[in-house]
Design goal:
This protein is an alpha+beta fold and 305 residues long. It folds into 2 domains: 2-144, Triger factor/SurA peptide-binding fold (Orthogonal Bundle), CATH 1.10.4030; 151-299, Chitinase A, domain 3, CATH 3.10.50.40. It has 11 helices and 7 strands. Helix 2 (35-48) crosses helix 3, helix 3 (57-81) crosses helix 6 and helix 6 crosses helix 11 (270-299).
């Protein structure tokens, strides 16, 4: 793999795309990944997370390679559940907006111009977003009935704090795997060292298996009442820029960084807060099931490296 990445890195330095020889790197069932595909994924990930430019190109290529493998595995499973890779256009535009707003872009047109700098088209990005959206639909169909949410506890927390300004956190995450509990401290310290050297965002791209890794782990603004007690306790006393201790989840270990904080007004609709809290907890659990299911189906695929 190291030899392959070195060769591919040389390809990236060649300006004339026609001079690059296309090589098949992976075969997964009837899907293939070529050297050109990895080059394009390289540009896509750089577009979503500009912090990646701080890493060595060989490391970014490795991340791009793994990202494409995940995409192909998901696509294979999606096509067992859907006739085509397609979602409602209104929903697609909504998802695109979420992407470009995180890049501090103001419109779809501005996003298209931005993508040109990375030799990407909006249609290519739409395709990738659609695959992620349909994968989420697959996970919802299979695991929604297994999601357990203590709605009464959430209502109790909201009612208790209804006359108090609630705190909101802008969070970034890293979710990593370990074979056993004894490895948690060692892996956590390894990631903390990486964060000190290359930053949280780049470390998320390397170590995190969450989909948020593509954008440096950013999961946006979360109201404190949307967090379960285990997570809330771990971040309650953290200051902006600080990182939580490991939070043990059912399928991995979570680390959170406080990007920013703010307080929401008292007059915000409690029903809206309740719905947001339910959605956050539901999505958090579904992300855990997503990783479990991904690992399961990947093991059963014909995979040539």
């Amino acid at each position: 793999m190291k030899i392959f990445l070195s060769v591919l890195f040389l390809c990236l330095t060649i300006n004339n795309a026609k001079s690059i020889e296309t090589k098949i790197v992976h075969k997964i069932q009837n899907e293939i990944i070529t050297s050109i595909d990895i080059k394009k994924e390289f540009r896509y990930l750089m577009a979503l997370n500009n912090n990646l430019k701080e890493l060595e190109k060989e490391k970014i290529l490795s991340i791009s390679n793994e990202s494409l493998i995940r995409e192909k595995v998901k696509k294979i499973e999606i096509l067992k559940n859907f006739k085509e890779i397609e979602i409602n256009n209104e929903y697609l535009i909504f998802l695109l907006k979420n992407v470009y707003l995180k890049l501090n872009l103001k419109s779809l047109k501005e996003f298209e111009l931005y993508l040109k700098d990375f030799d990407l088209t909006i249609e290519e990005v739409k395709r990738k977003i659609t695959i992620d959206a349909l994968w989420n639909e697959v996970i919802i169909k299979k695991y929604a009935s297994q999601v357990t949410i203590n709605k009464e506890q959430i209502k109790k927390n909201l009612s208790k704090n209804k006359n108090i300004r609630s705190k909101e956190y802008r969070l970034s995450e890293i979710i990593f795997e370990v074979e056993n509990k004894e490895e948690i401290k060692e892996r956590y310290e390894e990631i903390i060292k990486s964060i000190a050297e290359i930053g949280f965002e780049n470390s998320a791209s390397i170590y995190s298996f969450s989909e948020s890794a593509k954008i440096g782990g950013d999961i946006g603004w979360i109201n404190e009442n949307s967090l379960n007690n285990k997570i809330k306790k771990k971040i309650y006393n953290l200051k902006i820029g600080e990182i939580s201790k490991p939070i043990i989840l059912s399928n991995g270990i979570l680390m959170l960084k406080i990007i920013n904080t703010k307080y929401s007004d008292n007059d915000i609709d409690l029903d809206a807060k309740f719905k947001n809290a339910i959605n956050y907890e539901r999505n958090r659990q579904l992300r855990q099931y997503s990783k479990i299911y991904y690992n399961k189906i990947k093991k059963n695929l014909e995979f040539d490296e």
